Amino acid sequence: MWIADNWKDYKVIDTSAGEKLERWGDYILIRPDPQVLWNTPKKDSCWKKPNGHYHRSSKGGGEWEFFKLPQEWNITYAGINHLNLTFHLKPFSFKHTGLFPEQAVNWDWFSSIIKRSQSQNPERTIKVLNLFAYTGGATLSAAASGAHVTHVDASKGMVGWAKENAASSGLSNAPIRWLVDDCVKFVEREIRRGNTYDAVIMDPPSYGRGPKGEIWKIEDSIYPFLELTTKVLTENPLFFLINSYTTGLQPAVLTYMLETALISKFGGRVESSEIGLPVSSNGLVLPCGASGRWIAN
User: Are 8 and 32 in contact (CB under 8 A)?
Assistant: First the structure.
């Protein structure tokens, strides 16, 4: 398992009875987590005094309950490559805060690749395409490492939020292209234009709609889209990353897809694994999805 264990401003304190107890900077949140199937004793005192608690509803969805929690606050992430990123957080729809902290393990991984490539060839401009890019964690990590990034998401609000994070991280003038667009249609247009990228990051949702109502269902769409996206890679790409929070897309499935779509064209190697967050109360790891990585030799 790949573990995001380089955080200072974030921590999973404990987990029990379908919930996780977290510290986000100066604030304590309790949020539901479907992976938490155990009902262990809630010994940490923070269970009794959170700043925010998201309560699931038996009818689906749920709602937040707040206790002296600001509408918005910041946390920072440096990681192993001293990225010095700042993220705006705010509790919003369906338990989210605007950041998936487990993804930091991938930020560290590809930022190291970008930095190493640039040290070997300082004249090379590394172009990264980030699809389903959300609030920009991967975009900012790549840009802070020296890459030129194209950030694509179907939600205007999420792209706006990502721009705020860029400004807070001192990356307002970084070479980032911000696009509100359907990811599939954008890639199709890039192929027609002949535009290429040295790396691709994609974090596809299980289900979603594009700006014009385009339907995305991951089980039906992910492999054809993966094959399509390989057509915008340069002749000598650096890496390809797919993240999955969908139960059916286990690490072995991600490996199979990446192997069949990329190895015959570009060589290299593929590795996939669960990603997770350390739990400070007991030294165990909370699983948080899976990632598949292709990397050039």
Answer: no
Q: Is 25 left (phi over 0), alpha (psi -120 to 50) or beta?
A: left
**pLDDT tens string 58-72:** 777 899 999 999 999
In angstroms, rounded to a whole number, what is the distance separating the alpha carbons of residues 84 and 141? 9
Distances 175 to 34, 196, 207 between C-alpha atoms, Å:
38, 16, 30
What is the rounded CA–CA span in Å between residue 75 and residue 66? Answer: 19
Q: What is the DSSP string of 249-285?
A: --HHHHHHHHIIIIIHHH--EEEEEEEEEEBTTTS-E
pTM of the model: 0.94
Torsion of CA 105, 170, 199, 108, to 10 degrees: -20
Question: In this structure, are residues 159 and 180 in contact, taking their beta carbons and an 8 Å threshold?
Answer: yes
pLDDT, tens digit (0-9, with 9 covering 90-100), for 136-174: 999 999 999 999 999 999 999 999 999 999 999 999 999
Neighbours of 260 (CB within 10 A): 13
By CB neighbour count within 10 A (0-12 exposed, 13-18 middle, 19+ buried), where does 127 fall?
buried
- Of the candidates 107, 152, 147, the one whose C-alpha atom is nearest the C-alpha of residue 127 is 147
Six-digit token pair at 153? 């998401």
